[in-house]
Design goal:
Length: 260
């Protein structure tokens, strides 16, 4: 008999550690009592799922988290979850939609309510908003949670396809027939180039200012010299550009060299 099996046979210590949360398999689990003590929480982490040896999936809620201690030459400290399990026979499946629903009022009739933490995957339950339809009342949809940093692996419950040949179809809701276009150019007076229409008011605008006409004419003739200084209009005084820090400069008696 191996030492680990002998330790298990001797039983665990009577004193155990209890936790309100535990991280395992890429999930963070909390007990139901821990979540109930925090009514304003934003997440739920008490939903749990495990698969039995016969392939049946059991869904439940974590009630307690214990750490056991097996004394011996190599101390063992496994963590186990005590769960409230729903009746696996009270489960509805819709394979072509990938939906799994269970009845929250059902209770597993067996006595084995413990699992090792490494056997757990995380789920959460969402009830239907409709409370008047008897077909939906009391049933919650089961949603699987992806481990942190891992992408969920597609399976036959998620997609109606064969993962080996990819035969089949992904579920897609039907859209509306036909198509339509939205034209907002007239509403926001958008300028449209090329052969498209422009705003009528801008199209009828004419240039009438004499200076603007002269500038346009010069542009058409290619006689636009940006370095050329336009002549001063009548009545404007000459601009004094002489450096005021110059000791020879007398602003009271300026000469012609002080201007240009």
């Amino acid at each position: 008999m191996c030492p680990e099996l002998r330790q298990d046979a001797n039983g665990c210590a009577y004193r155990v550690l209890s936790y309100s949360g535990y991280d395992v398999n890429g999930y963070r689990f909390h007990t139901k009592s821990h979540e109930q003590s925090r009514p304003n929480r934003r997440t739920t982490n008490s939903g749990v799922c495990t698969t039995a040896l016969d392939g049946v999936k059991y869904y439940g809620i974590i009630e307690e988290i214990y750490e056991l201690t097996f004394h011996g030459c190599k101390p063992l400290k496994p963590v186990i979850f005590k769960c409230h399990w729903f009746d696996p026979n009270e489960v509805r499946r819709t394979p072509h939609l990938g939906l799994v629903k269970n009845r929250q009022s059902s209770v597993y009739s067996g006595d084995d309510v413990y699992i090792v933490a490494q056997q757990a995957t995380q789920v959460y339950y969402l009830s239907y908003p409709c409370k008047t339809d008897d077909r939906l009342t009391g049933w919650d949809v089961v949603y699987k949670v992806s481990p942190h940093g891992k992408v969920p692996i597609p399976n036959n419950e998620d997609y109606n396809i064969d993962p080996n040949t990819y035969d089949g179809e992904f579920f897609q809701e039907d859209g509306l027939e036909g198509h339509f276009e939205i034209n907002l150019t007239g509403v926001i007076e958008m300028e449209v180039h090329d052969d498209e229409m422009v705003d009528d008011e801008d199209a009828d605008e004419e240039v009438r200012n004499a200076k603007d006409l002269e500038l346009l004419e010069r542009l058409q003739l290619g006689d636009d010299n940006e370095d050329e200084i336009p002549p001063l209009e009548h009545g404007l005084e000459l601009l004094d550009l002489r450096d005021s820090n110059d000791e020879t400069y007398d602003p009271a008696n300026p000469d012609e060299d002080d201007y240009f």
